[in-house]
Each structure stands twice: as C-alpha cells, then as structure tokens.
Amino acid sequence: MQEEVEQRTVTLAVSTSKMTANVLKQAISKYLAHCKEKKMEKARAGPVKPCGKQSVKQLVGQNQGVSNIEITDKNIKDFERIARKYGVDFALKKDKTGEIPKYLVFFKARDADALTQAFKEYTAKTDRKKERPSVIQKLRKFKEQAASIDTPKVRKKELDAR
Length: 162
Fold this sequence. Notes:
Strand order of the largest sheet: 1-3-2
Shape: flat
Number of strands: 3
CATH architecture of the domain at 56-133: 2-Layer Sandwich
CATH topology of the domain at 56-133: Alpha-Beta Plaits
Strand content: 5-15%
C-alpha cells in the first residue's frame, strides 16, 4: 500500500511562452490549492449514505431496523435489478450450510412495502420465464419433424446434348 502512494505521478499541463522556476512554482501551488479545495468540499458534504445493494454491516449501521427474507433461487441477479428499480436498500448473504444454497435478503424495515412490490414483480418475471418453452426443446422438436419428412434420394443425371 505504501509503495502505491509513493509511486503516484501527477501530470500538470502549463501553457506558457517561457518555462521558468517561478511559473512552475505558481502552477504547482495552484494545483495544491485546487486539491485542498476539493478535500474541503468533500468534508462539508458529510458522510455518504449508501443506497441500493450494500453489506449487512452498512445496512445495520444505519439504525433503521433490519428484516430479512429467504430466497432459494439461483438467479439472484434478476432480483437485484428489480430491487434497484424500486430503490430498496438491501444486502444479500449466501447461506451455504444446507445442501441447496439459500440467499438471505436483508432490508430496512421502512422499505418493507417497496420490497413486497419488488418481490411481486420478481416472482411474476420468474413465472413468465418458466412458462416460456425452451429454445433447445423447440430445436429438438423441429429436428424430429425434419427427420420424419420423407424426401426421395434419387439422383437424376441429365446430360445436355448440344
């Protein structure tokens, strides 16, 4: 970590007709003042409150009460997209103790209504996916149909007599 800090470089572009020590000194002092101002702005803004997907520790640290729901579905990415859409603050934790891995979704107590709506949309989406026939199954079906079609394999040779 210390080596990374020591090996940092800064590119400074200065437009001047004659590069002197004074010009270089002024450019570096302006750059340092700019960095200091950015640091001060960050300090004035206060701590950034995380939103969306976060760790369980961050979620509990917000002191707003935490609830959880258990999911056994492997495709958890779809749920993440929908939860982000509804603006739910949540944390995922994988429980590997059982034979089938389970996911625990921790969320703030105040987000309960938004989370139930997100779960409704998520379950509707997974149900639609299950209803759709598989493309591979369709291909197999069409292969069988193509094989059952009887095509004559008689070759005819015609000579063109000119």
